[in-house]
Write a structure and sequence with these properties.
- The complex is a heterodimer of chains A (about 375) and B (about 525).
- Chain A is mostly helical and about 375 residues long.
- Chain A has a domain of about 260 residues.
- Chain A is about 70% helix and about 5% strand.
- In chain A, the strands form three sheets. Chain A has a two-stranded antiparallel sheet with strand order 1-2. A two-stranded antiparallel ribbon of chain A has the order 3-4.
- In chain A, strand 1 and strand 2 form a beta hairpin.
- Chain A starts with a helix and ends in a 6-residue tail after the last helix.
- In chain B, helix 14 runs antiparallel to helix 16.
- The termini of chain B are far apart.
- Chain B is about 70% helix and about 5% strand.
- Chain B is globular, with a radius of gyration of 26 Å.
- Chain B has a domain of about 325 residues.
- By secondary structure, chain B is mainly α.
- In chain B, a hairpin with a 4-residue loop joins strand 3 and strand 4.
- Classes of the chains: A mainly alpha (about 375), B mainly alpha (about 525).
- At the A-B interface, helix 3, helix 4, helix 5, strand 2 and helix 12 of A face helix 2, helix 3, strand 2 and helix 18 of B.
Chain lengths: ~375, ~525
């Protein structure tokens, strides 16, 4: 293995970040389109146009989510185990909302019936809006710390309830996340359509872009004023065998800003959220939708990256047993597994990007009502 | 101690969600190759009817695929939600194939399926065929990786327990990859999928022929399905037999249970064709035996012995006793004792740690263990014989019945007069559900037969669960079953509707039951 254990642990923090950001950019834009579907499509034909902008791609995009789950399992098994069992009902809500997507896309236009079709349209709305909302809420809770602890054999127990997840700060984070994804979807939709739908998508992009920035700013101010943050007080041996019970941790106001103070270069990350969003809004207003899409993707990197950098090296702080908090150093897989998974990712990720780009290239161009009429039986 | 009800409900939920998923997966695995064959013929001959076949069967494939994706999402996350301790304990090994499955297989399959449906007018014929082939490759690779993961649960090679991290850790990735149990399982399972795909096309084509409609379309589809199905069913049976070849202890125990073989018999052992197993007294109340057959299937020899359940029980009881020591030493090590002697002593017995952990179903501390409790734990290592014995036999009987059907279908396809043989067509039609039943039984035999372990010999099922409330489990189980059943009803409705309408649903103007083509009026 060319990398030592601490380096690989850090690389895996970056790689999981890449997968989560990839998920938000790729699956995010078709979730955003799903969220907007009932509002920007005023009749059946318009809705079919909206759906078919992502029709050939949503399934491939969804794999970012599946692979993100698999990668967290492989690289951070304790996070996979503790977070998903702790956030049990939140996780199920995400899964159940996602159920509407494959069937919604594939079944909707197979039957000529207004009720049938509008039911699936609202299903696609749920599948588009609920997951980003819950992911945002989950991040909002991670930033506050969540109530879990381990016994000596590392059996985790989560002592919070589902309703406790829905606290004001977490809901604000949920708004930021949903606005971000809807914004991104609106930019994509504007790029792939023309006429009325295009105009509505542009308007939606401006509204949700502004909402995202306002929410992001408010969350930042709240984080700086409120009692947020955790810090490791013992000496960190990044090369040690991972054991989350070996350290000591305290709750410390302002700790989530420590990385920006010690490494000012990291301020690029939150700056990217502002610059990307501002650029995307400007460009979409001018009709330069492709550049706008690149810019809104950068905004996503900025927003998710900000959460990651603020908490680093924490992944899942514990509010009831701070020493049990999961970090980049002590909740990871073995050196060997991280190494193998590193090479698997390095090998396959470029291939995935190449054939996904090819698929978008093949299907490029505006989706129009004429296209829907010509492909009455094969289009979604 | 973990509540038994929680364990049972978690198992039930996993079984329900996995078995629902497996209603859709086999058809996907098989149909995708039939699409490749049909489209290849189209590209080679240029005959439009083969393009129509690819598109029509592709439409039904898509309806099925949607639910395969839906029910598959759950499975990627359910280890975390419901099997948290399992995920922690073996994630170092088990997580890797799942992640690679996503990177290598799911991305490919899911990206290509979009182009398969939407790329007809935008790709050249050869490009489109390439897309279909890549979709098939992706689909089958996903089966490979998940069965590598599953094979490791049955035969956990290439890993070792570490007391410092309190989990299993990977020692040899290649032996996990080339685990013989995984390789057999992969070929057996995908072949079963191919049979399912072939039966689907064969049955529906037979129905068109019985109705005397879309004759040319149905005849061509029937012939392709017959040939593909025959080859696949042969592969299922050969590889099923290969899985029977006793590899490792997990498979030996399962084999003895499947065969209801209580005593170790002189080699080569006989095969119990029919039996009434009596688990309490550990014997068969009644059995009809074929001499020699079991020994030959199980050991590929005339002189090697297969252990009976009684012998396995004695062996496992000794391992439980050693396991007590392993658990005690582990507790000492976890409390911070780091002296060399303790570590050496632990290393000596840690192979039996899993057997010691079986006792945690009954006691918190190893000090409370009594000989009766050791007996119970040892008994737990034997799976329940009756359900395994019978589901296995039904599965095998179905396999041979399908072999006969596909054999005759192929024979009369070659002769050319299958379309006039009503009995054959009716047989094909009524056999539509059979491969699904066989697949579900196969899953049951493999996974129920692994009990009481999630990882054979390493981690007992009752320790693997998440610490959730029983109420949560009732709620989520009801949610999954309700949701899936609703979606299944919708799926069946669409499937029946489009199968009935037939290739006319493509709106090409060449078949019966044409849907009015809106584009024609525009």
């Amino acid at each position: 293995m060319i990398f030592d254990y601490p380096t690989l642990k850090f690389i895996w923090w970056l790689l999981v970040g890449v997968l989560l950001v990839g998920f938000a950019i790729m699956d995010g834009h078709d979730m955003g389109v799903g969220t907007l579907l009932p509002f920007v499509g005023k009749n059946d034909e318009e809705r079919r146009v909206v759906i078919n902008t992502v029709g050939p791609h949503w399934d491939g995009n969804q794999v970012w989510f599946i692979t993100g789950g698999g990668a967290i399992f492989a690289a951070w098994p304790l996070v996979y185990a503790t977070a998903f069992s702790g956030f049990y009902w939140a996780m199920l809500a995400v899964l159940w909302a996602l159920f509407f997507r494959p069937v919604g896309f594939d079944y909707r236009s197979k039957i000529h019936n207004a009720t049938w079709r509008s039911t699936w349209d609202w299903g696609l709305f749920v599948g588009g809006a609920v997951p980003p909302l819950i992911f945002g809420v989950a991040f909002g809770n991670l930033l506050q710390g969540v109530p879990f602890h381990f016994d000596n054999n590392l059996v985790s127990s989560y002592t919070g309830s589902f309703w406790a997840l829905l606290n004001p700060f977490a809901l604000l984070a949920g708004v930021v996340s949903t606005a971000m994804i809807t914004f991104h979807g609106a930019v994509y939709l504007a790029h792939r359509t023309e006429g009325d739908i295009h105009r509505r998508a542009r308007a939606a992009a401006l509204i949700f872009g502004a909402l995202m920035l306002a929410g992001f700013t408010a969350a930042g101010v709240w984080l700086s004023q409120g009692n947020f943050g955790y810090a490791i007080t013992s000496v960190v041996d990044a090369a040690a065998q991972p054991d989350p019970l070996a350290k000591t941790v305290v709750q410390q106001s302002g700790a989530w800003f420590a990385n920006y103070r010690t490494m000012p270069l990291t301020l690029i990350v939150p700056a990217m959220a502002y610059l990307g969003a501002a650029m995307a809004m400007l460009m979409v207003a001018r009709g330069r939708t492709l550049i706008a899409f690149v810019a809104s993707s950068l905004a996503i990197v900025g927003v998710i990256g900000t959460a990651g950098v603020s908490m680093f090296p924490f992944l899942m702080p514990s509010s009831t047993m701070p020493a049990a908090s999961l970090t980049v150093w002590d909740s990871v897989s073995s050196h060997r597994t991280l190494g193998i998974m590193f090479w698997a990712t390095i090998l396959f990720m470029p291939l995935i990007i190449i054939y996904t780009s090819w698929a978008y290239k093949v299907m490029s161009g505006k989706v129009t009502t004429a296209y829907i009429r010509e492909n009455e039986h094969s289009a979604y | 101690m973990v509540s038994e009800q929680l364990v049972d409900l978690s198992r039930l939920q996993f079984a329900a969600t996995a078995m629902y998923h497996f209603l859709f997966v086999p058809l996907t695995l098989g149909m995708v190759w039939l699409l490749v064959i049909m489209e290849s013929v189209y590209v080679m001959t240029g005959k439009t009817i083969y393009r129509d076949m690819t598109q029509f069967w592709g439409k039904l494939f898509g309806i099925n695929f949607a639910l395969g994706v839906t029910t598959g999402i759950t499975l990627e996350f359910q280890f975390g939600t419901n099997w948290a301790y399992y995920s922690h304990y073996v994630g170092d090994i088990f997580g890797a194939p799942l992640a690679i499955e996503g990177l290598m297989a799911f991305f490919l399959e899911s990206t290509m399926i979009g182009l398969f449906f939407f790329g007809w007018d935008r790709l050249s014929r050869r490009q489109h065929l390439l897309v279909t082939i890549l979709m098939a490759v992706g689909t089958n690779l996903s089966a490979l990786w998940i069965l590598i993961a599953n094979g490791w649960m049955q035969n956990p090679v290439g890993a070792e327990f570490s007391y410092e991290t309190m989990r299993m850790e990977l020692t040899d990735f290649w032996s996990v990859l080339f685990n013989p149990v995984a390789q057999d399982k992969f070929v057996h399972t995908v072949s079963a999928g191919y049979v399912t795909g072939a039966m689907f096309v064969l049955s529906i084509s037979a129905w068109y022929l019985l109705r005397g409609r879309d004759i040319e379309f149905a005849k061509r589809s029937f012939r392709i399905a017959a040939a593909f199905g025959f080859a696949s069913v042969c592969s299922v049976i050969v590889l099923g037999d290969e899985s029977g070849y006793a590899l490792g202890e997990a498979q030996q125990t399962k084999l003895a249970a499947i065969e209801s073989m209580w005593e170790t018999e002189p080699a080569p052992a006989g095969f119990n064709l029919v039996a009434i197993p009596n688990q309490a007294e550990m014997k068969n109340d009644f059995a009809v035996q074929i001499p020699w057959m079991m020994g030959i299937i199980g050991t590929r020899s005339f002189d090697k012995q297969l252990p009976g359940l009684n012998e396995i029980l004695v062996r496992n009881r000794e391992r439980v006793v050693t396991g007590i020591e392993a658990v005690r030493l582990l507790e000492k090590l976890r409390q911070g004792s780091a002296d060399e002697a303790t570590r050496t002593a632990f290393d000596k017995v840690k192979a039996d740690l899993g057997f010691g952990l079986l006792l945690k179903k009954y006691v918190v501390s190893m000090d409370d263990v009594t000989p009766e409790i050791i007996d119970r734990a040892a008994r737990d290592t034997l799976p329940r014989v009756t359900p395994l014995f019978w589901t296995f036999r039904i599965m095998v009987a179905m396999g041979f019945a399908m072999l006969a059907l596909f054999g005759l279908a192929l024979w009369y396809s070659i002769k050319g007069d299958f379309a006039t043989r009503g009995w054959l067509l009716k047989w094909a039609l009524w056999f539509l559900p059979v491969p699904w039943l066989a697949c579900e039984m196969g899953w049951f035999v493999a996974e129920y037969g692994r009990q009481p372990w999630t990882i054979y010999g390493v981690l007992p099922t009752h320790l693997s669960v998440s610490t959730l409330t029983v109420e949560s489990l009732y709620g989520s189980l009801a949610g999954f079953v309700g949701f899936y059943t609703l979606l299944l009803v919708v799926e069946m409705y669409l499937m029946v509707r489009f199968a009935r309408q037939g290739p006319g649903s493509l709106g090409t103007g060449r078949y019966l039951n044409e849907t009015r083509h809106a584009g024609a009026h525009a």
